[in-house]
Design brief:
The chain is mainly β. It has one helix and 26 strands.
Length: 329
């Protein structure tokens, strides 16, 4: 009986020791885990396009987050693994770029407990200016250029953006704007330019993000208008009647000449010349009381000769039909 009591007492003591040990383990302190604030809200925003102004342009970088009396390591450069460029104590850094292109940056937050968190690698685009317009046609200092010229040039954009153009054209070395918002690198003059005059022209290229490039001022000299070949004193011959007379044609417009002695009768008349088809026409014309006529034929732009057929009516009745050959004297 005494032995049983001793065993029971020993079991109770051991049980108490285990209970005390268990209580001590439960009372151990939970370790503190430190986490640095996550960096957010980058500016410029991801994939933003920043207009390029010039080499040495500065771009402010800012971000959200709190370093809690710590700092930020800033990484910036032209590759997707940018180098470290600074350690700052505020949420801002001023980057400098020398040209357009894609730029990458990243921020590592370091808090007061030296705990770090790393942002994603962000990127934005610094827009490049278009290439300087080049390869003008007419070529620089070209002569005998058409008075209705088609002007062309060559241009590209580093990012492949669609470009628009402003065209400056005039008779001075600082030409005024003639057309804007052109979507192709070509322009055909609507107005007829003055013959035998030096013209100056220039192209300003624009991309959609404010990038601008300006060409040099180019120049060319217009030639004589084709119509001028047909201005002057002519011999008008009517071969069927072995009859000829003098007639003078004067300048009317870029496509017309005039006379005041048609059919050797002191009648005014206007010929319209087509330099594409190499033809001329005198549409139905009333010369004097009861008299009307038409004429059409072909032209030779080298010699100025015109050959065609005519019909004359008097009060609606045909009076004469024949051939006119106009030879320049």
């Amino acid at each position: 009986m005494k032995r049983k009591n001793i065993i029971l007492v020993m079991l109770l003591v051991l049980s108490g020791l285990f209970a005390m040990q268990s209580c001590k383990k439960d009372e151990s302190p939970t370790p503190t885990i430190y986490k640095a604030a996550v960096t957010t809200a980058p500016a410029p925003a991801v994939d933003a396009v920043v207009p390029f102004t010039a080499s040495g342009q500065t771009i402010p970088l800012t971000w959200g987050g709190d370093a809690t009396s710590g700092s930020w390591d800033v990484y910036f450069g032209g590759t997707s693994t940018p180098p470290k460029v600074a350690t700052v104590s505020t949420n801002a850094y001023t980057a400098t770029v020398t040209k357009g292109g894609t730029y990458y940056w990243q921020v590592i937050t370091v808090d007061a407990n030296n705990v770090k968190s790393t942002s994603e690698v962000w990127s934005f685009e610094v827009n490049s200016n278009p290439a300087v317009p080049s390869t003008p046609k007419p070529v620089v200092n070209a002569i005998n250029v058409s008075c209705n010229p088609t002007l062309t040039w060559v241009d590209t954009d580093p990012e492949g953006d669609d470009l628009t153009y402003d065209l400056y054209l005039g008779k001075t070395a600082t030409p005024g704007i003639t057309a804007s918002g052109l979507t192709a690198a070509t322009y055909t003059s609507v107005a007829t330019l003055t013959p035998n005059v030096v013209y100056y022209w220039q192209i300003v290229a624009h991309d959609p993000y404010g990038g601008i490039s300006t060409s040099p001022v180019w120049k060319f000299t217009t030639g004589a208008l084709p119509i001028n070949t047909f201005v002057g004193l002519y011999n008008a011959d009517e071969p069927a009647e072995t009859y000829s007379y003098d007639v003078t044609f004067t300048f009317g417009s870029a496509s017309t000449i005039k006379t005041t002695n048609y059919w050797n009768s002191g009648w005014p008349a206007t010929f319209t010349l087509d330099f594409t088809k190499l033809t001329y026409t005198m549409t139905s014309y009333t010369f004097s009381t009861g008299w009307t006529g038409v004429e059409s034929g072909i032209i030779d732009t080298k010699t100025g000769q015109m050959t065609g057929t005519y019909t004359l009516w008097l009060n609606g009745v045909i009076q004469e039909q024949g051939v006119h050959t106009y030879t320049k004297k």
